[in-house]
Structure prediction request, 500 residues.
Amino acid sequence: MSEVVDSKGVKKKFSHPKGLYVLFTAEMWERFSYYGMRAILILFMTTDMAAEGLGLTTETAGAVYGLYTASVYLMTLPGGWLADNIFGQRKAVFYGGVLIMIGHLILAIPGSPAIFFTGLAFVALGTGLLKGNISTLVGELYENEDGAKRDAGFSIFYMGINLGSFFGQIFVPLLAEYNWHLGFGLAAIGMFFGLIAYKVYAPRYLKEIGVEPKAKSIEKTGKSNSSVTFIIIAFIIGLLVTLQMLGYIDVTTATGIAQALGLIIVVITMGYFINILFNGGLNLMEKKKVTVIFILFVGIAIFWSGFEQAASSLNLFARDFTDRFIGGWEMPAGMLQSFNSGFIIIFAPIIGALWVKLAARNINVRTPFKFAIGLILLGLGFWVMVEAAQVAASGAKAGMFALILTYFLHSIGELTISPVGLSATSKLSPKKYLGQMMGIWFVGAALGNLIAGLIGGNFDPENVLEMPNIFLNVVWVSIGAGLIFFAASPFIKKWMGEIT
Prediction:
């Protein structure tokens, strides 16, 4: 139990709804499967075929990694639309879990690259249905006025995410040391457990939440003009075709496709926000809140572009330039990523309680300020990697402490951005676009993951002297973005209204 002070100064005790722990468990097993597989993905792709890997170059593997992880989150946008208009959030989550499990089972089959990429496609489609919609269900458990309580609830939910990823990033890489496909198969088993827990307990504890599609239960407050939508779509298609003809987009290589997808994500997202703002039937206050969601989208994309290098450039650094011996045992490179999840498990309840305690004293740290803190911590983490890269450039191997300290700083930054951003998006979104707005939030993660993959593709083990500069560029972008959020915080706060 915790206490919070309402607008009249009255202290109220609260506990979190039991439905939160149902969603906590389902998401925990889904993240076990996703992060467990992700921990070995780029290592598997860059391992020689003689050692049963795919034998891809670092550049191609980085592009494929970026395309896959971007697609995982990009699919949350159509996943949100399907939930809002056809399935409802509850069914969308279950169907998504089934597709994810099938995808991991396909990845467990030794065979051609075509089989491997088919498995990745199933996982991406399934995650698109599950990821955004399960977060929407968490937001639906709370009343709009319960801002601090909702933030704390998302922090608990976030701890479930990282509990799953912690164990996934330990056991999947361990199995993969013996056989890559055993690792992929274990990820499928994890998703199976998540589906069972969700199917058994969701009807009892979620009751009617998420059963009916929101488009059927919410009356439209304004008229939309379909011709405006078609004009925007035509503009996007025309722009992309023109860029292809002029040679700015090259889809003949994996790297070219990844670069093109990054541009496509930016153009489509801009078009989507323009459509919602001018053709979505929103009032002025709703338009201001949607604009804030766009600003947060930019912030989270920058954050993930650095953070998600844990599985690309930082993973390769762990394999090739880090001393991973503990006594006579060498830790698998992918296991180092579990430190991030371990830090989240330890500090998520502490950070969540901190927000509630501050709210109880009528001190509400606003969302843009929290974003600024997270971005600056991201930059500081990469400053540590600049120093580690300089050690590697001198011909020695860096100690594991550098990566562990980086993951610590990134984890605290993640806690000030990701669960808070999820919560803010659920509160700021117009009700009839809730699923789609949550999808847009994850499209920001898609863009960040794609950039992280492309940066990882530039990580050349044969050109060690370039590594410090690669990491230093991330330092300046992250800290610069954090300072901008600090400066803009008072202005963003006004457009958020009563939302914290």
In short: Confidence is low (pLDDT under 50) at residues 1-10. The two ends are 22 Å apart (CA to CA). The beta strands are 2-5, 11-14, 322-323, 325-326, 329-330, 398-399. The first helix runs from residue 19 to 46.
